[in-house]
Amino acid sequence: MAFEGLADRLQSTIKKMTGKGKVSEQDVKEMAREVRLALLEADVNFKVVKDFVKKIKERAVGVEVMESLTPGQQVIKIVKEELTVLMGGEQSKIAVSERPPTVIMMVGLQGAGKTTTSGKLGNLLRKKHNRKPLLVACDVYRPAAVDQLETVGNQLGIPVFSQGTEKNPVDIANEAIEHAKQEHLDYVIIDTAGRLHVDENLMGELTQIKANINPDEIFLVVDAMTGQDAVNVAETFDQTLDITGVVLTKLDGDTRGGAALSIRAVTDKPIKFAGMGEKLDELEAFHPERMASRILGMGDVLSLIEKAQDNIDEKKAKELEQKMRSASFTFDDFLDQMDQVKSMGPLDELLGMLPGANKMKGLKNVQIDDKQLVHVEAIIQSMTKKERQDPSLMNASRKKRIAKGSGRPISEVNRLLKQFDEMKKMMKQMSGAQGGKKGKKKKGPNFPFM
Amino acid sequence: MSFLNKLKDKFTQTKEKEEVSDKYKEGLSKTRQSFSSKLNDLVARYRKVDEEFFEDLEEILISADVGVNTVMTLVEDLEMEAKRQNIKDARELKDVISEKLVEIYAGDDFEVASPLNLQEDDLSVILFVGVNGVGKTTSIGKLAYQLSQEGKKVLLVAGDTFRAGAIQQLSVWGERVGVEVIKQSEGSDPAAVMYDGIQAAKSRGADVLLCDTAGRLQNKVNLMNELSKVKRVIEREIPGAPHDVLLVLDATTGQNALIQAKQFQQATDVTGIILTKLDGTAKGGIVLAIRKELNIPVKYVGLGEKMTDLEPFDPQAFVYGLFSDMLTEE
């Protein structure tokens, strides 16, 4: 892959430093260069990077690094702290107007995802805040943009106000607000046409809409994959409209998303939400700290932990741990565990959140196919209860039956049995090590089939 | 004669070429202004060619979204070149800089633009792929217009059965251009729609079939597999098809564009790129990195919202557009 995370980048520099005891200014300079490259590779604007690296240098040359035992880690920590500060606190609140309806205007470049985000936002307001939103189709330029919003509204069961493509967007917005008042809808989300920030006419139209409807929020919708130009876009939209917040879309891709940092730095406006998928409920509060990790390529440890907490039944986890220790782990437990992990989301997504996962050569290009899990499940489910408890019962004819029952080749059955056997051996070793020598303890989450 | 002047000559020779380059100049004026004014700034500010000079040059190139790796190699090359030719004055280096850039842009076939792989007297199938929101449908509309202006019988297939309103969007383009759109309802199997499209194109004796697909992020394995399947269906129905697989890239995209190109190339053997939204302030420097690392040529650039605002990518005109300010100031 084209990108290396900061942690990887710093490895070589750190290696040189270990054993030195203290970090020289030259070391800091070298590390600062790596920080700079990592941020640039993540698409953070070069001006923003410059200021940032300067700040890091100042802090790092000071006491903190010099006296630290692991200087490299300390630098990463400083970088992450500063980055988190720069990204701001979590702010997913949406304004509430004293006199409803509250009006939200969605603006941005073409293809950023305004229409989809409008729908997602409406859904969020209704679901989480118990509001009654109205979607307004003010994109009269792009072919079928009105149809798109109407379809989204239909899917969600949220009313859409549209007047075709012949009318002026300013008038449509005005009438929509009147309509919302009559219908006692308390939020109006106005979807505007995508436009280039340098298109003076169309930017003027936005100013006009704003002056007419006096919105409570103006959200700039930005594609997370945006490069260096994010700064120009955000700056111009903010100067023209004084935006109140940012929504970052397509964050479920594999971009590092440095644009987020650039936008924060030049507008000082909060990033409020993040689009995390194509489904209409995949709009999440934006977490500045996680974004900081992501930009640095450090793995989204926090998200992983949170997901695990949300989805894994604690009691079951305890039981499982007990079983692993006593090595009385059976195929039934295996199935159980698979179900729990599966409920956390697609596996490759989980893997991506593990720090260092992109460092492990073997894992880098592994595409974990959720279908494989289905096959494993099918094989286990084709075993009898006895077989699941005691795999040593397996013989050729049993295997044949299982293969037939699951519709998988015998070789696959064999492989699973072998893997299971090895896993049990590993568990035995681990539980032995945990009782005895401390040094051998395995770190981190440990999913048996990974 | 300096390299840039040579280019200039080339473009002032014939009227037709001038028109092309005018269009580029217009569309790229934002790009050109910021890029070459920065380069001029740089050269004016520094009398001496020193470390600081190269650092600033690095930044200018990075701000154009030319990937970090490409920039580093380029700057190293330039440093070497400056040493070799013993260049001390920054103004002298300007020519070398542009020459190097052109070299990466255009490689060995600097003279050759990359046209579509259209079949003579037979059906040509062109598949459009890319992430969400890059302008696939719009590009299809624009290309359909151009091809039908050239007298070709064009047919469109609405293969984006996922996004709300995508089928209508393509249909509107079909009406505008006056070409038929083959479609099924939203949510139907895209491979099946493609099959329909091919059968229709065959029976109607179409010259070109333009196939729209749903936008997808390149890290979604299932969706990428779906795309490979769509391509396989086309391959199976017409040997040698699709004759072009065009990856549509948004010029505002940063480093991720390179990963996009890699992944889509793996899934569908991309044969060319359409670089859209180049009429903003985005520099489209990604093209450099992609050309260099993956050798995928840019075939078209989107330079505006109008039906006519799709231009065949001409590396020379493109570079000329980028650097013409520098010429006039000389």
TrEMBL record, chain A:
UniProt KW keywords: Cytoplasm, GTP-binding, Hydrolase, Nucleotide-binding, Ribonucleoprotein, RNA-binding, Signal recognition particle
GO cellular component assignments: signal recognition particle
Domain SRP54-type proteins GTP-binding stretches: 270-283
EC number per UniProt: 3.6.5.4
Gene3D superfamilies recorded: P-loop containing nucleotide triphosphate hydrolases, Signal recognition particle SRP54, nucleotide-binding domain, Signal recognition particle, SRP54 subunit, M-domain
Signal peptide annotation: none
GO biological process, one term: SRP-dependent cotranslational protein targeting to membrane
Compartments (UniProt record): Cytoplasm
Keyword Coiled coil: no
InterPro entries, per the entry: AAA+_ATPase, P-loop_NTPase, Signal_recog_part_SRP54_M_sf, Signal_recog_particl_SRP54_hlx, Signal_recog_particle_SRP54_M, SRP, SRP54, SRP54_GTPase_dom
Similarity remark: Belongs to the GTP-binding SRP family. SRP54 subfamily.
Record comment regarding domains: Composed of three domains: the N-terminal N domain, which is responsible for interactions with the ribosome, the central G domain, which binds GTP, and the C-terminal M domain, which binds the RNA and the signal sequence of the RNC.
Cited function: Involved in targeting and insertion of nascent membrane proteins into the cytoplasmic membrane. Binds to the hydrophobic signal sequence of the ribosome-nascent chain (RNC) as it emerges from the ribosomes. The SRP-RNC complex is then targeted to the cytoplasmic membrane where it interacts with the SRP receptor FtsY.
HAMAP family, per database record: SRP54
Assembly and oligomerization: Part of the signal recognition particle protein translocation system, which is composed of SRP and FtsY.
Name this polypeptide is given: Signal recognition particle protein
Classification lineage: Bacteria, Bacillati, Bacillota, Bacilli, Bacillales
UniProtKB/TrEMBL annotation, chain B:
UniProt cross-references to InterPro entries, sorted A to Z: AAA+_ATPase, P-loop_NTPase, Signal_recog_particl_SRP54_hlx, SR_rcpt_FtsY, SRP/SRP_N, SRP54_GTPase_dom, SRP54_N_sf
Entry GO MF terms: GTP binding; GTPase activity; signal recognition particle binding
Pfam families per record: SRP54, SRP54_N
CDD domains, per database record: FtsY
Reaction catalyzed: GTP + H2O = GDP + phosphate + H(+)
UniProt keywords, alphabetically: Cell membrane, Cytoplasm, GTP-binding, Hydrolase, Membrane, Nucleotide-binding, Receptor
A single GO cellular-component term on record: plasma membrane
Role noted for this protein: Involved in targeting and insertion of nascent membrane proteins into the cytoplasmic membrane. Acts as a receptor for the complex formed by the signal recognition particle (SRP) and the ribosome-nascent chain (RNC).
Quaternary context: Part of the signal recognition particle protein translocation system, which is composed of SRP and FtsY.
Full protein name: Signal recognition particle receptor FtsY
Organism of this sequence: Halolactibacillus halophilus
Source taxonomy: Bacteria, Bacillati, Bacillota, Bacilli, Bacillales
GN (gene name): ftsY
